[in-house]
Amino acid sequence: MKPLFAALTVALAGSSVWADPLPSWNAGETKSAIIAFVDSVTDSASEAYVTPADRIAVFDNDGTLWAEQPAYFQLYFAIDMVRKMDPAALTSDALKAAAAGDVEALLATGKEGLLEVLAAAHSGMSVSDFQASVSDWMEEARHPTTGKPYDAMIYQPMLELLVYLRDEGFDTYIVSGGGIDFIRVLAPDAYGIDEAQVVGSSLVTDYVVGEAGPVLMKQPDLFFNDDKAGKPVAINHHIGKRPIFAGGNSDGDFEMLEWTTSGETPGFGLYVHHTDGEREWAYDREGHIGVLNRGLDEGSERGWHFADMAQDWAVIFPSTE
């Protein structure tokens, strides 16, 4: 994978980052609120001061740190893996649709069909072999609409936010409904986030000792679904502390923002709102991905903030030049 995060770090180091820690964010209420919050929790003289050990920031991945349309990028990975399967193993409508690259027909098979394709593409191999296949795919695969590498469709403003928070003593975590083993492959180069700071959905994994020694084998059964109310549970299980900053983009992130902003210490809730149909995709209340209803209805009343892509972001994706 191209180390886009490393390139961003170099670019920021040569800019007026100290004057403006979020240079791709337009001036406005949301940018000002982020900076004011960070200033308050990092100022030891402030009543809102939070010690570095408790400065935990959590972010959804799909639709929050990188794009997610017209389908989750991990689904495109699964489709490409099914295409490589023995045709004799394509025994269902879902598997046949995936092998044909027909996303519309695959989505028509519903949740059961999607889970079948994901299980077929993500199990029956060791964790290390699976992650090697993800790494190879990230190098070669291209988005069906933009033609870009998938790791070129990360949001520049969110990369800057991650850098800014870490510079101010925050630990940054990914808390995603996507697969934990999948995201761990891309997180260090794409976001500067260590594999150990990735929380995600997972399949059952077995410890198997063979002639070559012990391996961790991925099984087709779901172990944990890191979505909605599962996100605070997973945060407690993996991190052990309540975050003070949370970013998401859909109702699947609602409970994570709610948990983050309900503690005794100050908390910041941020929704990435997809309003830019020219530079990205415009969607919220309706659709098959990234649906945002409850967040729009209740977010402002709860004191949460919205990053309006069309208004708040001067740049969407990093320059690859």
Fold topology:
Blueprint: H1 4-13, H2 29-42, E1 56-59, H3 73-83, H4 93-99, H5 103-108, H6 110-122, E2 125-126, H7 127-140, H8 156-167, E3 171-179, H9 180-191, E4 198-210, E5 213-224, H10 230-238, E6 245-248, H11 254-260, E7 268-273, H12 294-298, E8 305-308, H13 309-312
Parallel strand pairs: 1-3, 1-6, 3-4, 6-7, 7-8
Antiparallel strand pairs: 2-5, 4-5
Characterization of the model:
The chain is of the alpha/beta class. The chain folds into 2 domains: 4-69 and 153-312, HAD superfamily/HAD-like (Rossmann fold), CATH 3.40.50.1000; 73-140, no CATH class. 39% of the residues lie in helices and 17% in strands. The protein is built from 13 helices and 8 strands. It has helices at 4-13, 29-42, 73-83, 93-99, 103-108, 110-122, 127-140, 156-167, 180-191, 230-238, 254-260, 294-298, 309-312, and strands at 56-59, 125-126, 171-179, 198-210, 213-224, 245-248, 268-273, 305-308. It has an 8-stranded mixed β-sheet, sandwiched between helices. Helix 12 (294-298) links the parallel strand 7 (268-273) and strand 8. Helix 3 packs across helix 6 (110-122).
Strand elements, count: 8
Low-confidence parts: 13-17
Name the average pLDDT. 94
Topology as H/E string?
HHEHHHHEHHEHEEHEHEHEH
- So what's the overall shape? globular
Distance between the termini: 16 Å
Structural class: alpha/beta
Summarize the structure.
The chain is built from 13 helices and 8 strands.
Features:
321 residues, globular, Rossmann fold, alpha/beta
